[in-house]
Specification:
The complex is a heterodimer of chains A (479) and B (159).
Chain A (H helix, E strand, L loop, with lengths): L1 H9 E15 L7 E14 L2 E11 L7 E12 L3 E8 L12 E9 L6 E6 L1 E10 L2 E10 L10 H4 L3 E11 L2 E11 L4 E12 L4 E10 L14 E11 L2 E11 L20 H5 L8 E12 L5 E13 L1 E16 L3 E12 L4 E14 L4 E14 L2 E14 L3 E10 L10 E13 L2 E10 L2 E5 L2 E5 L2 E12 L2
Antiparallel strand pairs in A: 1-2, 1-28, 2-3, 3-4, 4-5, 5-8, 6-7, 8-9, 9-10, 10-11, 11-12, 12-13, 13-14, 14-15, 15-16, 16-17, 17-18, 18-19, 19-20, 20-21, 21-22, 22-23, 23-24, 24-25, 25-28, 26-27
Chain B lengths: L1 H16 L8 E4 L4 E3 H4 L4 E7 L4 H17 L4 E7 L9 H7 L6 E3 L4 H5 L7 E6 L4 E6 L5 H13 L1
Parallel strand pairs in B: 3-4, 4-5
Antiparallel strand pairs in B: 1-2, 1-5, 3-6, 6-7
The chains are: A mainly beta (479), B alpha/beta (159).
Chain lengths: 479, 159
């Protein structure tokens, strides 16, 4: 008992679990069927040590798509100055120009080709070591980044085709940070060396900046930058004066897709929470893209906010594609009680052959009692493609009681010829989220859900259509 | 053998009963200064808000957290905002935070290291931490009516 108490005071076991049952399928499936996905994460902490393991499993009647895998494990030692990780870990260099790993909370990925489901993340399997001393930080990373396109049913060599060894060091002085990095990339056949320099900091309380430049060292010449066949330049300037804020960013990427895509330079395209806009995003082309993004914020004395965004992306692949978007949002309270968000957006998207794309919408939370609210959402989008006009619409009617119970009825319509062969298609679905207790929440979806491109936490991916019932139980393993 | 099994069970029981603690961490704030949890934590309680600029419920919660901060700061409660925007939108965090007049410190967790270490799986997530670093309450999401729940929970633990 004494031993148990002693360990209890210093050691912790914590974690989380996501279990999801689906009955249904894609619209193209000939019959409905059941699938079950589960992801259990366990962390064990003892003083400066941490061990973590993730067990992932998927069960479906479809052959070749089932698995039970220890998909992640890690050991970590952390002291005031050192941190050493072995196993699976997440690490990003700079703003992701050389290396970006991520985990999208709660996102389960399914691909049309493999019909297996797995957690959406890109980690690195290997080791990393960090050293911090006063104003100096350095990290070394070695390992194989995950190619998340392939589910855990595929072999190691396919999922972790790329190998990297990278060193990053930075020094802070007077609120300015200078960083340098070198990375060796290897995939069994090709070997490349990349370098990166960053300079960032605050010029005053109201002005800050961030710059990053990376290139392929094999064609680097101090005398002639024009010889560089692959490079990435990113710069950002931020201003803030009282209730006014401005973020301006510039990008210039040329042949800068490393390996199977282990890097992800900043896209400089706004990630929208509105569904019609989130789906209409421009996906970054690191092989050839230049452009900028400007975003302005203003908060009024009554705490209502105005946001304006303008982004431009130019891709030159022989033919020039120019994506441009203007977005304006006003977020305010009615009678200091009801929250309203409204937006208008105009875009030209030549990749999707969409001209004069106009989107408008309004989301409202109508407070009806002290802790209850009714939610209404309406979004409308119209665009022209090859001389014809198409429309997308979304209607949501919801009810919420605090964060404990949330009910939503969602209807979407579209006559987009890329989605429906003729006429207008309607997707109708409903979802319920109920917080059972502090550690458990259940979410139920029933009906038909529209798929398509989606962006979450800065990463864009493809979501498949679904028709049926989905039950998700989220558990936090903690007393 | 029996003793080993009993001992193992006792240790495991001890482990699963231990609440998760927030271990000291260092992150950069929006002014490019290194700030540690130990330096910023409240004398009695600390409310940690994990948020992102692209998350609408997160931005909706900010004026309410400012209000809670004004009301409870003098009672030993601190709020720390941990922003989890990735490389795509992290440049907006500074100007957005200043435009919203966020009164409590905002730290940048661009690699989601602290988010992952504390098992945060949704945005926004609020963690209420006591003076010893123990997580005593967790709240996910933010909708109308949640402000009162948050204040009630903080006041319950202040008693």
């Amino acid at each position: 008992m004494l031993l148990a108490s002693a360990v209890e005071s210093q050691a912790q076991l914590s974690g989380s679990n996501i279990a999801e049952y689906q009955y249904g399928g894609l619209p193209s499936d000939t019959a409905s069927f059941s699938t079950f996905y589960d992801r259990l994460v366990l962390n064990y902490n003892y003083k400066s040590l941490k061990a973590s393991a993730t067990l992932e499993q998927f069960h479906t009647p479809l052959p070749g798509s089932n698995y039970i895998k220890l998909s992640r494990f890690s050991l970590q030692y952390k002291s005031r100055e050192f941190e050493i990780k072995a196993g699976n870990f997440y690490e990003t260099i700079g703003r992701g120009i050389l290396l970006r790993s991520f985990e999208i909370p709660g996102a389960i990925l399914e691909d049309l080709s493999y019909r297996s489901r797995h957690y959406f993340h890109r980690d690195i399997l290997g080791m990393s070591a960090k050293y911090n001393y006063k104003n100096f930080n350095a990290k070394f990373i070695y390992g194989n980044p995950l190619n998340y396109v392939f589910p855990p049913t595929h072999e190691f060599e396919k999922r972790r085709f790329d190998n990297i060894a990278a060193l990053y060091a930075e020094y802070n002085i007077y609120k300015q940070t200078i960083g340098i990095s070198g990375m060796r990339y290897f995939n069994g056949q090709n070997e490349k060396y990349y370098s990166m320099t960053t300079l960032s900091g605050n010029i005053s309380d109201n002005v800050s900046y961030y710059t990053e430049f990376a290139g392929n060292m094999s064609d680097f010449s101090l005398n002639d930058f024009s010889k560089l066949s692959s490079f990435a330049i990113y710069g950002g300037l931020n201003l803030a004066f009282e209730s006014f804020g401005l973020s301006a960013e510039y990008k210039n990427y040329k042949n800068f897709l490393i390996g199977t895509g282990i890097n992800e330079p900043p896209a400089l395209i706004k990630e929208h929470s509105y569904k019609v806009l989130n789906r209409s995003t421009h996906v970054l082309q690191p092989l050839n893209e230049t452009g900028y993004q400007i975003e302005l914020f203003y908060t009024f004395p009554d705490l209502s906010t105005l946001t304006f965004n303008n982004s431009l992306a130019i891709n030159n692949f022989g033919n020039k594609f120019v994506y441009q978007e203007y977005f304006l949002e006003y977020d305010f309270s009615l009678a200091n009680k009801h929250d309203i968000k409204s937006f208008i957006d105009f875009a030209e998207d030549p990749f999707k052959l969409e001209k004069n794309r106009i989107s408008i919408g309004m989301n409202a939370d109508w407070k009806i009692f002290n802790a209850s609210s009714l939610r209404t959402e309406y979004e409308f989008q119209n665009f022209e493609r090859l001389g014809k006009h198409y429309e997308n619409q979304i209607f949501v009617l919801g009810y919420g009681y605090k964060s404990k119970l949330i009910l939503n009825l969602v209807a979407e319509t579209s006559n987009d010829s890329f989605i429906v062969s003729n006429g207008t298609k309607i997707w109708l679905g409903g979802n319920i989220k109920y917080q059972l207790n502090k550690n458990n929440a259940i979410q139920i979806f029933a009906g038909e859900r529209r798929g398509g491109p989606a962006c979450n936490a800065g990463v864009c991916y493809e979501v498949l259509d679904f028709k049926g019932v989905e039950i998700r139980l989220k558990t936090r393993i903690s007393p | 053998m029996k003793k080993i099994i009993i001992m193992s069970c006792l240790i495991f029981t001890g482990l699963i009963l231990a609440a998760q603690n927030v271990q000291n961490f260092v992150l950069k704030d929006i002014e490019n200064n290194n700030r540690s949890f130990n330096e910023l934590k409240g004398e009695k309680l600390t409310l940690i808000d994990f948020w992102a600029t692209w998350c609408k419920p997160c931005t909706k919660a900010i004026p309410e957290l400012n209000r809670i901060y004004d009301e409870l700061k003098l009672q030993g409660v601190e709020i720390i905002g941990i922003n989890c925007d990735g490389p795509r939108s992290v440049s907006k965090v500074g100007p957005f935070s200043k435009s919203m007049n966020i009164k409590y410190p905002v730290l940048i967790d661009i690699n989601s290291e602290i988010k992952t270490a504390l098992n945060v799986i949704a945005f926004p997530t609020l963690l209420l931490v006591d003076s010893k670093g123990k997580i005593i309450w967790i709240h996910e999401g933010f909708v109308s009516g949640d402000t009162e729940t948050i204040i009630d929970e903080i006041k319950k633990h202040l008693k």
